[in-house]
Amino acid sequence: MKEPGSVGTIIGSVTGVTFPDSSAVLNVEEHASSLSNWERTGFPKQGGQSLSYWLQQVRCDPLLDHRTTQNLPAQADTVIIGSGITGTLVAKHHLQTWPDKSIVVLEAREFCSGATGRNAGHCKPDQWRHFGKFEKAYGQEQAIKIMKNEASTWRALVAYIKGNNVDCDLWVGETLDVPLDDEVAKIAKEVFERYENLGGKVDHIKVIHDPAEAAKVSRIKNAKACYAWQASTLQPWKLTAHIMRDDIEKGVNLQTYTIAQAVNETGSSTRKWVVQTDRGAIACDTVVHATNAYSAALEPSLKGVITPKPHMCNKVLPPRALCGSKAIQNSYGVLLPDGALFSINPRCTTDGIMMFGGSNPGQKQLDAWVERHPEHCIDDGLSRVENVTECVREFVSDNLEGWKDAEFGPGEGFDYSWSGIIGLSADGVPFVGELPGKPGQWICAGHHGHGMARIFTAAPGLVKLMNGESWGSTGLPEVYQINSERLRRLRTASEQPPKVATLNP
């Protein structure tokens, strides 16, 4: 396989990879990411939010509306905006680095009610699939480094959960990537082999190219191949809550239902910044933007760079034919011909409920509706979006043995779906570092629907930068670093139509 063209020339606009004269595309998360209105943004929806399955499970938890102090403090050393896994982990590592500095975490709504509390419950490190796209945009070295970082992130997350006995429904086992189309399987094979030939680590990945064997192993009837490696599923809210409780015990002040509205210079010699909220102002020396999809609402320089978009997750209770000893025992990324993806989390170690996330074909219709109604770009009040759910129904009926002819009793079947807001990054990777031209303001955001496989290393990496350490000390890929040049290039790229990188076998 030849090198897929020049690198660095189309940063911000590579949405997938394909072959000449092929209609098939490999690359999933970007399947539904091509927007005409990249500069839309907004603050978190106030009222009417849907409840994810994770949030449904914790309605009696006092952390949901916790305020460490009755009144908002007038000042603090550091203000962290956002209480998801990013803000909570930044607070944890901030405490370890500067145990005597004061920290206030602001949350616009319930604790951890944004993307972390609304995802499909996967921590699945990308170990090869996006290599072709990232190589085209950033070159071989950075593309390999991204794959290595995601593996490191997963190991760090699992080590923390096991080392601290966190009760968050952790499952560790084989995740399966399964192409359902011959052309997609061919592209996947080329990307995998190129990654291997260039020195990418693949000895931990089991590969099956025989469709009959792939169908047997994956239990997906129309499988054309199967790639298996270690990943995890979990209850993400419970993990984040465990970390935040420890943060609070060590001195963090959490203020829920407090909307950060603006960040301005104080104009005084005592504190550098003032964060304006709906409950008053808080002055500080350091601000951390951990707001992911909502980042551009507070920081205008990020418009067109980080963009919010609703995605749906379906909660499905399998029929008795797929329960007990016949229950699904793997998580999945099911790869469809047009770049679409079913992300499947069957919660193997707990209740067996199956979560269907990702960008299935019905997501395109939801995207088109949001394009016509951009005020819904931050609408996580969506539920039971039939176009998306119908695609899940068709998939399980056509592909999972025993599903099509199963009888469904009360309490089984397609129970519920909810929306979460992903923060699309204009180049598909997060932004980590100090905001250009605003010393003392830092960011870790724009995770592009893949935050659980990045944040457990990105958040501590940000704190190292805050402590004056070099980028190399973070271990993160250099392309994650935010700087003026990257922002300039992405604003230019966002004005151009997205491209699909062509591979030459």
UniProtKB/TrEMBL annotation:
<dbReference type="InterPro" id="IPR036188">
    <property type="entry name" value="FAD/NAD-bd_sf"/>
</dbReference>
<dbReference type="InterPro" id="IPR006076">
    <property type="entry name" value="FAD-dep_OxRdtase"/>
</dbReference>
<dbReference type="Pfam" id="PF01266">
    <property type="entry name" value="DAO"/>
</dbReference>
<dbReference type="GO" id="GO:0005737">
    <property type="term" value="C:cytoplasm"/>
</dbReference>
<protein>
    <submittedName>
        <fullName>DAO-domain-containing protein</fullName>
    </submittedName>
</protein>
<feature type="domain" description="FAD dependent oxidoreductase">
    <location>
        <begin position="77"/>
        <end position="453"/>
    </location>
</feature>
